[in-house]
């Protein structure tokens, strides 16, 4: 009997459990394998949709689904969070319980979330579209009442998930206020700790002229240190200050609390894994995927998905004895909406630098298509399409 | 004075600069950050970053198929 434990029922955890359930369906039926997914959340949200909620007023209920509809047949869902993973003795404990739940394989996909502790004053001053759909909806309420003033958006600290999302917020605000006919009365300022508006040069070449044309001011190499909510002022690590009337910064992110200080994590709590087969360094039967890893690529759903496919395939291959092992190529594909029904993509792999892709309506339609198939993709219904789309980047032999 | 060693090998743009900025946040004026990266963009990007943030780009040298970049933290407000 082999027990597989998966922690986190988000983008990475769900596709991993679905693929394992499919590849090991015979073994599950015969009672030789169990797959258990742990997460106290009973509803999941389509996180890229937070931008639509915050800047276009989409109702949060449109981007939510009950977890029970997302879990594939053959997977046992436990609605509890895990608070301890013991890699040496191969067990997990859920919050508040002393029961040791043994496993043979473990996959950690606990994501990342905003860490307001890192920047003094940010919590009191800021509204963000990275926490959840409800918080994102508060931004839309706020912008609906803005008649004039200075809005500061951008990167508050590193790392954070979905690298293009702060840029998208600037573009979407520009569109929103143009449509309302009051763009001239609203100043939009984008700040970033990088020396370019988008960190990868190829994408920066595309969007820098667009920022100029759209009259979005940019301040690069700005390392936010503190925020004074009363004075409505940001101060950088270098002592520069910046005034704002409204602040919608992307906060730096943190991993799940139980990972900090654990043997598998770096000093900030990100899990140290092999960047190609995703095993936790020094433990062959432990894996981490998605936002929670320390691998040096963007924290995004496409990566979590492709990593999940690799890990599920390799565990199933080991259990069934086929040894058809595969590797993750480092493929990224983050969409960047540039407003007015256009988008570009940030595409690269471990071996290929980020490509220059001009914004187009076709790209925007591709992004919209992904929204439509997202929930089904967590069940593994669209792997044929991803295989076709990603070609040799889907995985490496 | 502390020396912070940051190994960014195998990370491509914007990896090394992300790692540099994260180390910088934890550093104090006078500290050295030694960044090892094999992304060729890391050297010009670190130079540009130092100029913009008023930190000192001490130098870079080749080491085992990578670049070792040394930065002295001088730009932080006291
Ligand atoms: C505004 C925005 C726009 C985005 N746009 C894109 C995009 O265009 N393209 C793209 O690819 N990605 C995008 N993303 C990023 C994408 O949503 C995430 O990278 C992806 O969800 C990561 O998957 P994951 O499985 O690592 O984490 P998540 O999907 O966040 O899931 C983590 C799960 O772990 C659970 N968990 C946490 N701690 C515990 C615990 N102790 N025990 C049990 N469970 C736990 C959480 O409850 C959560 O359900 C965007 C994100 C945001 C916020």
Task: Output the keywords.
heterodimer; A: 397 residues; alpha/beta; FAD/NAD(P)-binding domain; five-stranded parallel β-sheet; four-stranded parallel β-sheet; 10 helices; 21 strands; B: 78 residues; alpha+beta; Translation Initiation Factor IF3; four-stranded mixed β-sheet; 2 helices; globular; binds flavin-adenine dinucleotide
Shape of chain A: globular
Helix-strand category of chain A: alpha/beta
Shape summary of chain B: globular
Q: Under the CATH scheme, which class of the domain at 133-252 in chain A?
A: Alpha Beta
Question: How would you characterize the overall build of this protein?
Answer:
The complex is a heterodimer of chains A (397) and B (78). Chain A has 397 residues and is α/β, with parallel strands linked by helices. Chain A contains 10 helices and 21 strands. In chain A, strands 5-2-1-9-19 form a 5-stranded parallel sheet. A 4-stranded parallel sheet of chain A has the order 13-12-11-17. In chain A, helix 1 (11-23) packs parallel to helix 8 and helix 3 packs parallel to helix 5 (133-144). The mean pLDDT of chain B is 91. Chain B has one domain (3-72): Translation Initiation Factor IF3. Helix content of chain B is 31%, strand content 33%. Chain B has 78 residues and is α+β, with helices and mostly antiparallel strands. Chain B has a 4-stranded mixed sheet, with helices on one face. Bound molecules: flavin-adenine dinucleotide. Flavin-adenine dinucleotide is lined by residues 7-13, 38-39, 41, 47-48, 50-51, 81-82, 109-111, 129-130, 161-162, 165, 256, 258, 290-292, 299-302, 304, 334-335 of chain A. The site of flavin-adenine dinucleotide has 36 residues of chain A, from helix 1, helix 3, helix 8 and strand 20.
């Amino acid at each position: 009997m082999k027990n597989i434990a998966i922690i986190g029922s988000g983008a990475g955890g769900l596709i991993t459990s679905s693929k394992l359930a499919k590849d090991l369906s015979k073994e599950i039926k015969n009672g030789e394998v169990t797959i258990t997914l742990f997460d106290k959340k009973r509803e999941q949200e389509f996180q890229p949709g937070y931008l639509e909620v915050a800047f276009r007023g989409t109702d949060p209920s449109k981007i939510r689904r009950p977890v029970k509809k997302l879990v594939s047949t053959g997977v046992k869902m436990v609605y509890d969070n895990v608070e301890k993973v013991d890699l040496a003795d191969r067990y997990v404990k859920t919050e508040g319980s002393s029961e040791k739940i043994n496993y043979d394989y473990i996959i950690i996909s606990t994501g990342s979330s905003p860490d307001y502790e890192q920047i003094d004053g940010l919590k009191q001053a800021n509204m963000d579209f990275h926490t959840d759909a409800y918080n994102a909806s508060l931004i839309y309420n706020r912008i609906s009442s803005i008649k004039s003033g200075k809005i500061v958006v951008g990167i508050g600290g590193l790392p954070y998930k979905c690298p293009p999302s702060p840029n998208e917020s600037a573009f979407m605000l520009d569109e929103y206020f143009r449509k309302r006919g009051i763009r001239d009365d609203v100043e939009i300022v984008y700040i970033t700790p990088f020396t370019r508006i988008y960190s990868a040069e190829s994408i920066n070449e595309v969007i820098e002229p667009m920022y100029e044309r759209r009259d979005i001011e940019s301040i690069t190499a700005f390392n936010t240190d503190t925020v004074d909510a009363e004075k409505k002022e940001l101060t950088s690590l270098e002592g520069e200050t910046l005034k704002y009337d409204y602040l919608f910064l992307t906060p730096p992110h943190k991993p799940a609390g139980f990972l900090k200080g654990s043997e598998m994590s770096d000093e900030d709590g990100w899990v140290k894994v092999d960047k190609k087969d995703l095993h936790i360094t020094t433990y062959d039967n432990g894996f981490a995927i998605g936002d929670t890893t320390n691998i040096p690529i963007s924290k995004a759903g496409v990566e979590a998905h492709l990593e999940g496919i690799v890990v599920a395939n390799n565990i199933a291959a080991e259990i069934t004895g086929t040894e058809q092992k595969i590797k993750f190529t480092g493929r990224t594909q983050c969409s960047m909406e540039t407003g007015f029904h256009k988008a570009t993509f940030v595409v690269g792999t471990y071996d290929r630098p980020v490509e220059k892709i001009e914004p187009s309506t076709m790209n925007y339609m591709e992004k919209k298509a992904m929204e439509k198939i997202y929930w089904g993709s967590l069940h593994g219904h669209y792997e044929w399409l991803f295989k076709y789309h990603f070609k040799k980047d889907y995985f490496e032999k | 004075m502390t020396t912070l060693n940051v190994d960014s090998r195998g990370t491509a743009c914007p990896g090394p600069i992300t790692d540099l900025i994260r180390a910088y946040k934890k550093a104090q004026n006078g500290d050295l950050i030694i960044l090892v990266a094999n992304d060729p963009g890391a050297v010009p990007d670190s130079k540009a970053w130092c100029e913009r943030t008023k930190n000192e780009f001490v130098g870079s040298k080749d080491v085992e198929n990578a670049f070792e970049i040394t930065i002295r933290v001088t730009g932080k407000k006291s």
